[in-house]
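Supplementary Note 3. Input sequence used for the single-chain structure prediction.
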Amino acid sequence: MKEYTVSNMQELFDAVSEIKVTHPMIWFRGLSKISYKLEPSIYRSPYNAKKHEAQLLGRFKSLSPSYLKCVPQDDWQWLFLMQHYGIPTRLMDWTESPIIALIFALHKIECTAPTEDACIYGLDPIVLNKNVKGFAFNDNNPIPFIGLEQERLFGTLNNTESNLPLAIIGPHNNSRIIAQKGTFTIFPHTLFGGSGLTDVPEKDDFLVKLILDKNSLVKMKKNLEDAKLTYNGLFPELNSIADDVKKMI
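The predicted structure, written as discrete structure tokens, is reproduced below.
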């Protein structure tokens, strides 16, 4: 996997420009610690994707309808709603914006010297999907939209032989996804080769890594804040406004 070391905003922009030469379409995901795995929440302890997904889905479908203005029409829509509210799923969020990925990578950084580098992963969704076994790849529509192509996706997403996650476009049905320019990968129940996307043999085809130097994280976060690019701005809700108001004093 190709790696870039980034110490300031200009180096980030330069790295993204270079990446786009070979990967014209690229998605980004920011992690606050370089040691974190590139994996969905349901892969992490104490969860088991195959065992617990159905349990969590069933319980959420049972308890939530009275609180919803619009009830999801199928299990995939339910899965996106669960992801929105922080319930562990096989979905993993990405963004089309490197700046938004940087905001996520830095939002837990405080005004003390970080002890570990952060990072941003870049994913080529088209190349990823070309590598997925059992997926009917279409050059005219290489990244399927979950709301319109259920039949095309159904076999792949439930195929226990699937070796890789699939890059998909989810429904832009809430303000968070819109503000975050959100896209997704949906993982199989078991990922061959390891528990994280960086563990799979094909990773060099579709992944790049931007290492954010720990000695530059505080300054880069200050640069974002000076430009009014904040974590709370990615969550256009009253709670986020309240958090920003408290920081004004």
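Residues 76 and 119 are 30 Å apart (CA to CA). The chain has a mean pLDDT of 82.
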